[in-house]
Amino acid sequence: MTDAIILAVLVEAFLLFMAFNSDRLRRKDRENEEEQRGRESATAVKAVFRMSRRWQLSDDELATLLGGLPVARVQHWRDQLAASEGVDAELTPDQIYRVRYLLGIDTTLHRLFSDEAQADRWIKRPHTAPGFEGRSALEVMRRGYIDDLCFVRRYLDDVCQP
């Protein structure tokens, strides 16, 4: 009987120990994930600002393309970058997808056009292809829907196919 009680106490102590450490490890994992997401967000913001400078986007246009962010947040990031400070950005998954689409569009344009200026101007030129109906890619994307970013990206990917 004593051995059974000792075993039960040891098992219970072990389970409590595991539960305590498990919570601590999960908290640590969450903290690491948040820290990682912060670093990735800062890198994404820097990259999208380089692209927006080449595309000559206003803060309002960039805020819309990033999912309707407050323009003040975009201006805050721009100020941080101008001061060579780290960017305190924490992008949502939706915003990260938007950045990926935008950077993919930019990369594809630079593959399509050997002239960098031409690649950067394409985004504001009107197009007659289906889906554009005489509008520029920027006008299409400024509606604010992620599907519009996806449309432009797919259009360019299709154009790039041999």
Summarize the structure.
With 162 residues, this protein is mainly alpha-helical.
Task: Kindly list the characteristics that best describe this protein.
7 helices; mainly alpha; single chain; 162 residues
| CA(first)-CA(last) distance | 79 Å
Extract low-pLDDT stretches. none
Average pLDDT number:
84
Instruction: Using the CA coordinates, give the radius of gyration.
Output: 24 Å
Order of helices and strands: HHHHHHH
Q: How many E strands?
A: 0
Shape: elongated
Helix content: over 70%
Domains, number: 1
Number of helices, where a helix is a run of at least 4 consecutive DSSP H or I residues: 7
User: Biggest β-sheet: count, sense, barrel?
Assistant: none
Q: What structural class do helix, strand and pairing data support?
A: mainly alpha
Please provide a written account of the structure.
By secondary structure, the chain is mainly alpha-helical. The protein has one domain. The chain is 73% helix and 0% strand. The termini are far apart. 18% of the residues are buried. The mean pLDDT is 84.
Lay out the secondary structure.
Blueprint (H helix, E strand, L loop, with lengths): L1 H54 L3 H7 L5 H12 L10 H20 L3 H6 L15 H5 L4 H15 L2
Helix pairs in contact: 1-4, 2-3, 4-7
